[in-house]
Every structure is written in C-alpha cells, then in structure tokens.
Amino acid sequence: MDLKQFLELFNPLPGNHYLQVCTSVDETTEELYKMMQKVDGELSLAIYNEDESDLQVRFPHAKIQYISNFKQPFRALPRNNDMVILKDIFHLHENKKGILKIAYTTLANSAYIIIMQKKGTMDIEAMKEMLEAFEFRAPNEIDILEEYDLVMAKKMHMWGNGL
Length: 163
Fold this sequence. Notes:
Blueprint lengths: L3 H4 L9 E6 L4 H12 L3 E7 L6 H4 L4 E5 L13 E7 L8 H11 E12 L5 H10 L2 E6 L6 E8 L8
Parallel strand pairs: 1-2, 1-4, 2-3, 4-5
Antiparallel strand pairs: 5-7, 6-7
C-alpha cells in the first residue's frame, strides 16, 4: 500500500494526540505511530474484536484499548484528540450515531475525522450527509488509497453541538 498521499493528510504538532479506531492494525497504524513518535505525540488505538498480545510490544508508547463487540462504544476523553481515524469499523458498528458523537466529543476544536473503509463498503454521499448532521463541516471524499474509500471532515469551533 502506497501511503505517501495518505500521510500528507496529517500535520502532527508536538504533543498532538491521534486516535485510530479499527478492527486490526496495518501499515496505516504503523506509519501513524512513527509519525506521532517523531513529534512527541501520542497515538491511541481502540481495537474491536482483536486481542493481539504483541501490540503493546509493537507500539510501546501507544494507549491501547480492546472492545469486545460492535455494540460497545470506544472510550475517549473529551477534547483529547486532534484527529480521529475510523478504519473498517463504521459499517460494522451497531450504534453509528454513538460512534460519531464520541468522535465529535473527543476532538479538539478545528480537528479532523477520517472515515476509511474498504472500497465498496461505504455509501460516500450518505456518509457525508451523516457527518454534516453531526456538525462536522466540509466533508470530502479523498481518493488516495487504492484499497480504501476515505471521507474527511472537520469539527469547527463555535458550530453546533454544545460549543
């Protein structure tokens, strides 16, 4: 997987926190981890249906939580993250609205959400509409990964949801 363009979506600053919510780790996880380590940032992982004992060894500075089923939400502190990446999880989760609400709450102002799913598993226009309904602005489809559909949107300061 060529991740050059994907990695250009990110501009981590010292101390930034990114959260990847996924069903398994892959090259995107590894590259995000390296990127965050270079800026003394933090990558947190919320992993559904996987309990890999070697993950803490592979990602020693990452905060890792395991979620046992697609009914349960992931945990994240309010305004603690500068980026949330939902990879191959959104279409499987039974509470899509709850997932978006947690993502919105955990993001700092002017932070981004990225939803990535294997090509053909996401209704991109419906996803953009859902993101708008949850007060994420300027949702865009970004075609940069051969294997994935990707939609990115921004949480704007002073817009909607309780700010």
